## 1
Amino acid sequence: MKLDDKIRKSKNAIPEMKNDLRKQIYSASIEEPKKTKRFSFRFAYMGFMALLLLGLGIFIGFSVNTLKPASYSNDSQTFRTEAEFEDFLKQEPKSSGMGFDLDGLLPGATFAGNAEKGDTATTDANSIVETQPTDKSGTSEANVQVKGVDEADYLKYDADKLYYVHPNVMIKDQKQTVFEIWKLNEGFTAMVGHYVIATGYLNTALVANKTHVVVVNYNTGFYSWYRADKADVKLLDNIEILIFEKEKIKVSSEGVLEPNKRIIMPGYLTLSTDQKYLRLTDKALLINSTSYITDGNIPQLQYEFDSKTETITKDQISYYKDSYNRLFNIFMKVDLNEDYKINTYHWFGSSPTVYVSHTALYYTERTYNYGINTTAVYTSKTRITKLDFSGNEIVAKGNILVEGEVRNQWYMDEFEGRLRVVVANSNRSGWFDEERPTKHAVYVIQEKEFEKGLEIVGSLTEGIGLPGENIKSVRFNTDERSGLNVLNIVTYRTTDPLYKILFKDGIQPYIEAELKVPGYSFYLHPIVFEEKQILLGIGLGGNWQDKLSLYNNDDELTQIGTDFLIDYEVRKYLGDESIGAWNSTQSHLEYIDVYGFEEGHLFGMPIEIYQVKTSAEEVKYVHYKSYMMLCINPNCKTPISIWKVFEGDKVAQTDTYERLNNYRVIFANGYFYGVGRDVIGLN
Amino acid sequence: MKRLSEEQFYEKYELYVQMIYKIAYSYLKNVNYSEDVVQEVFLKYLNNHYKLASLDHEKYWLIRVTINESKNVLKSSWNTKVSVMEENSYPYQDDLSEEKRFFEMIYNLPDKYKTVIILYYYENLSIKEISEVLNFSEAAVKKRLERARNILKEEEEKNEIR
């Protein structure tokens, strides 16, 4: 059949109209036109959970700091007898209540002793030019640290589809989390299908690659022991993995998405399978789950795959004798190419910070903690363990102990098989004390050549930060293909330097340049402009205003132009003195996209606009969730300028202060979309 | 403004309803939504029919309004997302008929190509008529039509290889 005929005949695929509307229309034209009944969606931020976690963080923070240093053993071992296993659990430090690192709760979350905006860094520089998926197979990698290793987020998108975890959707008078797939078409959006997440899961995140979208639902043990009624704790404490194959996505006649595979991975009072413990390469799904052991019970360590249940035996569990944490960790690898074959590695301890390359997972665990009142330079030590998952089995390659702490995944980076790690001393409280010695460091670590284990082969232990200064952000900017190998660190607060650190022979770190700037960036985003490395900093200015700054990070380290003060610029743009705005990105929990064009870059940023409405009775603040599009061109006199501000009528408008975290601007196939309460085209 | 009688309106309804509905469906792939568009378009027609000079103008006007209304529905589909999901199922199933598969390919075309395909093949409008409806030059319509055909052809070839 000819193409023309096929096109003509495809008209027959259009179903018949269901209703004869003539009378209805004619009547409506005489009366008031009938409005189509529409569903409404409402959601509010789960602030109570954040408060709960914050509260617990405070509680735990002070508890952990009372711990005494334990003796150190560099050898991990597995349990040989039942008695050994039970003895290990009994040794749990009672004074701590529960012994685990704060870092493990939420990556970069602000807990006690970390009162200022968190330490952070941003995305892989190489991802910048590739954040615009132009074909249907590509998926945005804007939020990944390692190119090709996807990280959890609440949205992913490719050229024509958005995959979105939509919280608090009102369905039948109940707020539900819904996984949705949206079609993106030249600035217009339409929903393809949805999957309502079962009630009881507290958090949902997703990862995607060219072939798969994986939705992971999980909860934390907090909720279990927070609950008075523990009857359904078992139901709550598990991880549900829903795997959708992009080429085989099925939608029922009710618009419900059907996962191609579902895996249940029960934890025992799962504590913190946080979204940052989830990765997806082009070959495998990687999950690092954590379970909390309570009341000395021996956990039932099982996971289910389809209808099959496998039990992990105790002799498969590794532990460090000196570890004061008793969390049970499972690192699970699901092979996507080999019929979802599962490999696991298990250990007792903790894994507060995880870095994952294409072949290895590095997890950290703080081992020593001298308390916050010490005058010691370092108040903790951190053990870093390397697990290699490149082969058929997951293999522990060794561990190493370093002074100080590794605060989040951005403190680590693997380059040519070596791990580079930034460690900070423990003065993370933000209490500035210029008398306090400061000893931040950079180490380069590799596997030992002739024996099992890791060793330090390069280090920089002097010169990062003035006395009392704390690290505010860390950013590795590397590309093995081009040899790009730069580390930027921001410390605060005497002179607020931004450091540029290079690696001699790829091994020995040294400070190449430092730039003193007022305020600091808590978020660093590399941009390539005319083949030059530019750094976009998001942070706070000297007057505590939200600011954006551009730095030349190439031949020299200089600031480009002046700080862009968000509040001032938005007010000026909108021409209304009663209006102001602030950055509503969530530090490094929310990554940003910078979209490159020949003539410059566009940068979409969620902001919160407030308007002061003064009447005789009261002064009222009205808040809008909104989006701001910026044009970035380092060659211009004004290198950062507002291209467009989308005001509140486009997005959520709240009379009361409602901090919604799900706001993002995405750029797919040439069009901008705002994702938040709704998914809308912004062009 | 002279109001159309019920009979007069029914005549127009008979004449255009399938055209409006099918154009709308080609954009929305949802019966309920397409019927909403039919309703909206005819309501607008009832309020504006007296402004339309000729039958041709009437038809072109209705097509334009239908396309705009359909795009508006797409744009505001966030407001009614539960409904819009109802009929999006079959394109993702494996056992599509040839016609449905082709319809799906057309539905997935960028709007600017989809529009010319629908008007040319579904509504049998000439290049000249399409150029009047869309207010483009005939050359531009031809170019879009050619490009749309090429995309469909490429897609079809890919399917045949599979």
Note: Chain B touches chain A through 61 residues (CB under 8 Å).
## 2
Amino acid sequence: MAKSPNENQKPGFFRRLWRGFTTPSARYSSGALLVVGVFAGVIFWGGFNWAMEATNTEAFCISCHEMRDNVYEEYTETIHYNNRTGVRAVCADCHVPKEWIHKVVRKIRATNELYHHFMGSIDTKEKFNAKRLELAELVWASMKATDSRECRNCHDFESMDLEKQETRSADRHEEGFDDGKTCIDCHKGIAHKLPKGAYDEKEKAETGVQVPQSAKETAKAMQAYLKKDGQ
Amino acid sequence: MRKMLMLAAALMIGGLTWSVPGIADVMSLRGDKALDAKATAPDRRRQVTDDEGFKRDWKEQPPLIPHKIDKDQVTLDVNTCMRCHGPDTYKEENAPKVADSHFIAADGTKMETLNMRRYFCSQCHVPQLDAKPLVDNTFKSN
């Protein structure tokens, strides 16, 4: 067998790394490697989740002035911040999914928000208000698409006692359940101020804001899928 | 002349100090409390709601609001009262319709949208608390 020309040369960095990775250890016992591996795993995995949870705190959300001065300020006057029993919902309770995989997807999407923060897309009240309808439509579309999943983490139809509600609310809830409506269909703007054209199609057209078609279409498709699934 | 001025000034200052006890005699809405003392907190009240709605006490009374309005928004951008009480939606929502008079402009012409003078609903239409009137009155409803 002919010698390959680079037999005597030192293998490249990645090749050495791969060899080190695949050859059995001659120095450390399997037990020691296992124990160290498990501990390192716990620390890295725990650290990853800790960091992800840290980005779910209210303090993290309002460390950007876009959030603090606009949506957060409005939310402090609403029932999810200030209420009879003192139970609170923070930003992430409504805007970040609880299930791990959906949470990671949302966190990856949030990098787009970082980009726009540094671009200063909504760094003034005027810019924010001009964009508000579009941003709100996106949130509504995603809530509709998931059948208001984040609302239902706390507000479960099954546990809702209509007898304890005001007659007016109970009647409308019953109607809504029968029509297959989801929370966000009626409960828009419960934690933030509503933008112009939130309910009025004519006004929406006047604002000239282009509602992203893709988000709407995704919502429609998701809704059809959920219906087919018997939900 | 100078003496006269001095006298006038002395009289004015005297008059001011003399009238100070007179101010304390007036009972303000916050009660007989020193300005740096805390005012007495008003009694806690709950809102009264009614499924059928409240009856009017006189013909021209703006109907009272028999439900909670904490979550409603009347801002420059939206008026969520009109989601149910608007002319296009009231039937479906089974709610009382906003009166036609609210669509008439100051010059008497009919308007397509709510007259801005009528836009802020809670200026006339108000919710009710379970509070007794602060003063007696002899009004009889017709």
Note: The mean pLDDT of chain A is 86.
## 3
Amino acid sequence: MVSITATAPALALRQVSHWYPARGEALRALDAVELTVADGEFVSLVGPSGCGKSTLLRAAAGLLAPTEGASTVFGRPPAAAAAAHELGLVTQDAGLLPWRTVAANVALPLEIAGGDRRRAVVEELLDRVSLSEFAAYYPRQLSGGMRQRVALARALAHRPRLLLMDEPFGALDEISREDLRLELLRIQERERMSVLFVTHSVREAVLLSDRVVVLSSAPGRVLADIAVDLPRPREERLEATTEFLDCVASVRAALDVGRRR
Amino acid sequence: MTVRPAADAARREANRTAASAAPSPLPRRGLLRTVLASTLPPALAVALALLAWSAWVRLRDVPGYLVPTPEAVARALIDDPWRFVDAGRASLVEALGGLVLGAGGALLLAVVMAHSRPLERALYPLALVVKVTPVVAVAPLFIIWFGFGIWPKLLVAALITFFPMLVNAVTGLRDVDPAALDFLRSLHASRWQVFWRLRGPASLPYLFAALRISVPLALIGAVVAEWMSGDGGLGQVILIANGDFDTASLFAAVLVLAALAVLLSGALALLERTVLFWHESFEG
């Protein structure tokens, strides 16, 4: 068992297809998707809207059982990974509990997972997302960007090995978005957890990722799998380099191919 | 009785989180100001209505057995206050007991129905039967079944409060933030954990909405049952006053009933404010 989890990829989707029931005929969201995220790897998923990115992420998280194919997390079904508290989830809506303070929201996974509940753990998490002064605030008192920071801290609380992020910064203004991007970069480069990151921003995908996977419009198929060979630790400055821009261009080209089909 | 666990959970939550307060959490308005702001306008409205009533009866010379003056009603209250206090207390106990039975039972059933669509489909028609059963039709039946005493009154009050709580509670327990639910599911949280941490607290605004409807209904239910059985409570006072053409006492009893409803609703509003401080409806 130990040897299996040591060698198994963080996430593996094998021939995953999914149909949503619709009036008349079924709506096909995913078409035989193959995807692997290695242990410690940061993989972004880009594609036109409605291409099944979120469906794919939900299948990876075990929130949805794909019609065909299977996904595994560290060699086990997603439900088993969830039971072992190996999954961290951040969605576009923060999904915080409004009756809990920021600190109590971040402590939620510790209560469920029965892990280390010490206040110091929560304080350290809040410090990492620069929210230490807001521990006693309630979600409705925070801005959208701050709520998303809380959601990130909450998703990290139980030390998940695989972080699944569904357009986590999608609803934010550009400035909050950039701040959060850099914070995520810092956290991931230090902890080296595996990440599957869904976004519709090509620049964001390239800046953060080791690999960018491009999906076609519905039904989603893998069009391209582009390695981002940029040095780490990455910084904002990188965005002005030719290597960065070349990488962005190749992702855009792959997206265009998908659009023309 | 069953409303309390969920409310307690939220309050415990609030206490625990307030303990770690460094900067200012939600600012709360002073209690006195809150009470004044919510009691002064209705008090003025009532005073105006009383004045208009008194003036109308005097100017039009309406006979006292048809409509008494407010003064006559006040006299009826002052002449024999204990009659109304005892009757009011009996009605209050029956109404609250019925509320606990009816709303509590509805809440338990709602928890079951919210977790199972088939059970909801199976039980909903039965709940509708309870809803459409006219209270005036079953109250005499309850008296035949359970005799005089407190039980028929409790049951009528319970019957009348059952449906609003059931419908609201099922809706409230289902109306959870999907993103929060996804997060809990990604942690493999048990149904029990999801219930206490998400569904229960999320349903509280709906439960309070149901209680706001149910509290006056419970009083009506109790009084209707008393009126039918004629053994104690404000319903009995009304029944006897009606037979005696003692309109002043009848009005006095109705007034006491109204005062009870206002008092209970006020207490409920205060409780709601305390428990639902986090809800957007209390945005300062």
Note: Residues 263 and 269 of chain B are 10 Å apart (CA to CA).
